[in-house]
Amino acid sequence: MKSNKQPLFILSLVAILAAFAVPGQAQTEKATESKSTQASERKPRTVIALFNFADKNKDGKLTREEAKGHLPLTYRDFAKIDKEQRGWINFDQFMEYTNQRVSKHADDLLKAGDKL
Predict the structure, then answer these.
(1) How confident is the model at residue 22, as a pLDDT?
(2) Closest Cα partner for 53 from 99, 94, 82?
């Protein structure tokens, strides 16, 4: 008799676990999708936040001195970014520079991967 009850118990346990596993998986997938959507929506705001954080006087212009402690690469390359030599850059110039850096970094990674 024990042998008849044991398979029935195991089948019941499997059925219960399966019932709970599917919704949990769906919730995990939804949470992952939600996090991914939030991350993609957050990226531009993150760049804006970096610019605004460094722009201490909130005039919409970033000077080399403002970039100094917060955006070290922008500080280092400031003369290249400030093509008009005004002594400040705007957000569009900052974005252009940031996009160029990211693009170059991606190219470097791809080229390094080709060497492997």
Answers:
(1) 43
(2) 94
